[in-house]
Design a protein that fits this description.
The chain is α/β, with parallel strands linked by helices and about 240 residues long. It is about 40% helix and about 15% strand. It contains nine helices and eight strands. It is globular, with a radius of gyration of 17 Å. It binds pyridoxal-5'-phosphate. InterPro entries: Ala_racemase_N, PLP-binding_barrel, PyrdxlP_homeostasis. It holds the Pfam family Ala_racemase_N.
Length: about 240
């Protein structure tokens, strides 16, 4: 997709999101759009920025750090880490991102909390849950979620916001909705059991299943190809 088309694709994606929210009877600002920019060159992100996009999601640490350096003058970009996270990467994630959507182990959460620079304020955290039909092996099993959530909620430099999932692609709207409904029910159970720290975030839905995710209550949808076109291979 040539650079100039990013702004048009972004506009189409926003319209699609608006329509899904309207059809679901949800508020126009109930779901926010995260632009997933993995493997896209910095200039594509700059184009989306010019079209008003501020939240960007990246999966690969080194690539993300390179783009952050290239776009350093765009100071109000909000960077989200959404990829698998290993222990040896936590320090730079804690120092260079505002959100992490993919925490699925206490060890990773503890390191992020310990390594988060105090002056940046708490790191916003979603726990990745392995709902049925998950595309990968990542994610905490639903039966282990409450224990992990309680531990993570107690860590000083993190703010536990909610849950994230990456279900396998499914053909029909009903089949797409099922795992999203499961994730929403996980969140509702946590909030019923622990009303004192109500979680407000469901990070779910990608280019192929945005409507299903919005119907089930997504608060972030993570769109890559719908905004930037087909992804170039990783260098
Ligand atoms: C790549 C990716 C996306 C975006 O996928 P598209 O189908 O291109 O919209 C969303 N979430 C995660 C975690 C991803 O890795």
């Amino acid at each position: 997709m040539p650079d100039a088309q990013v702004s048009e694709a972004l506009l189409r994606a926003r319209r699609r999101l608006d329509a899904a929210l309207r059809q679901s009877g949800r508020r126009a600002d109930a779901t926010r759009l995260l632009a997933v920019s993995k493997t896209q060159p910095a200039e594509r992100l700059r184009e989306a920025y010019r079209a008003g996009q501020r939240d960007f999601g990246e999966n690969y640490l080194q690539e993300a750090l390179d783009k952050q350096a290239a776009l350093a003058e765009l100071e109000d970009i909000v960077w989200h880490f959404i990829g698998p996270l290993q222990s040896n990467k936590t320090r730079e994630v804690a120092e260079h991102f505002r959100w992490v959507h993919s925490v699925d182990r206490l060890k990773i959460a503890r390191r992020l909390s310990a390594q988060r620079p105090a002056e940046l304020g708490p790191l916003e955290i979603c726990l990745q849950v392995n709902v049925s039909g998950e595309a990968s092996k990542s994610g905490v099993p639903p039966e282990a979620l409450e224990a992990l959530a309680l531990e993570v909620a107690g860590l000083p430099n993190l703010r536990l916001r909610g849950l994230m999932a990456i279900p396998a692609p499914a053909e029909t709207l009903d089949a797409q909705r099922r795992p999203f409904a499961q994730l929403r029910e996980c969140l509702e159970r946590l909030n019923t059991a622990h009303p004192e720290r109500a979680l407000d975030t469901l990070s779910m839905g990608m280019s192929g299943d945005l409507e299903a995710a919005v119907q089930e209550g997504a608060t972030w949808v993570r769109l890559g190809t719908a905004i930037f076109g087909a992804r170039p291979p990783r260098p």
